Amino acid sequence: MPMVFLGLGSNIGKKEEYINKALTFISELYTVKKISHLYLTEPVSTIKQDWFLNCVVEIQTDIDPKKLLFTVKSIERKLGRTKTVKNGPRTIDIDILFYGDCVLKTKNLIIPHPLIQERLFVLQPMMDINPDFIHPVFKRSIHELYHDHPWTEKVTLYK
C-alpha cells in the first residue's frame, strides 16, 4: 500500500479539538501510521485571520485517491467546514498531500498537492514523520525541499 500523507489545519474556534476530532475520524477509517507534532503557523493568505494549528498524518489505505478525497471532504463537513472565501478561515482543512508516488491532476484533485514546496506549515510536520520521502514530481526529498524553503512564514512548535 502507498504511503499517504494528509495535511490538517484549523484556525477557527477550538483548533486543537478540531484537529483531534479529524484525527479520530481518520483513524476510524484508515490505519494511522504516524502523526507529526502540532505547529502554530502564520496564515499565508492576505485575508486577516487567526493563526493556524497544523499537522501531517501518514495513513495506510488501498482506496483510490478520488474516494479518499470524498472521505476527507465528508470529515470536513462533519466538523462544520463551509466554503467561504478562498484561503479564508476554517474549522478544519484536510488536504491530500501525497499518495505514494502517484501524480494525478483532475478538475477536483491534484496529487501531490501543488504547493507543498512553498508551504513551511506542511514541510515542517513532514520533517517530523518522513524527511526522506521523495516528492514524485520534483524527485527531491522533503528534507531537501525544507532546507531550500525561503522561511518567509512563521511556524512554531505547539505540542
Summarize the structure.
This protein has 4 helices and 8 strands, in the order βαβββαβββααβ. It is an alpha+beta fold.
Task: Explain what this protein looks like in three dimensions.
The chain has 159 residues and is α+β, with helices and mostly antiparallel strands. The chain has one domain: 7,8-Dihydro-6-hydroxymethylpterin-pyrophosphokinase HPPK (Alpha-Beta Plaits, 2-Layer Sandwich). Helices cover 29% and strands 25% of the residues. The chain has four helices and eight strands; from the N terminus they run βαβββαβββααβ. Strands 1, 2, 3, 4, 5 and 8 form a six-stranded antiparallel β-sheet that branches. Strands 6-7 form a two-stranded antiparallel sheet. Strand 6 and strand 7 (110-111) form a beta hairpin. Helix 3 (120-129) runs antiparallel to helix 4. The longest helix has 15 residues, at 15-29. The protein starts with a strand and ends with a strand. The model has no long low-confidence stretch (mean pLDDT 92).
Estimated structural class: alpha+beta
Q: What percentage of the residues does DSSP assign to strands (E)?
A: 15-25%
Regions with little confidence, pLDDT below 50 for 5+ residues:
none
The total of helices stands at: 4
Please bin the fraction of helical residues: 25-40%
Return the CATH topology. Alpha-Beta Plaits
Task: Let me know the largest β-sheet.
Answer: 6 strands, antiparallel
What is the count of β-strands?
Answer: 8
Shape: globular
Please give the oligomerization state of what you see. single chain
Q: What is the CATH first-level class name? A: Alpha Beta
How many domains would you count in the coordinates? Answer: 1
Distance linking N and C termini: 30 Å
Mean pLDDT: 92
**Rg value:** 15 Å
CATH superfamily, by name, is 7,8-Dihydro-6-hydroxymethylpterin-pyrophosphokinase HPPK
Strand-and-helix sequence, N→C? EHEEEHEEEHHE
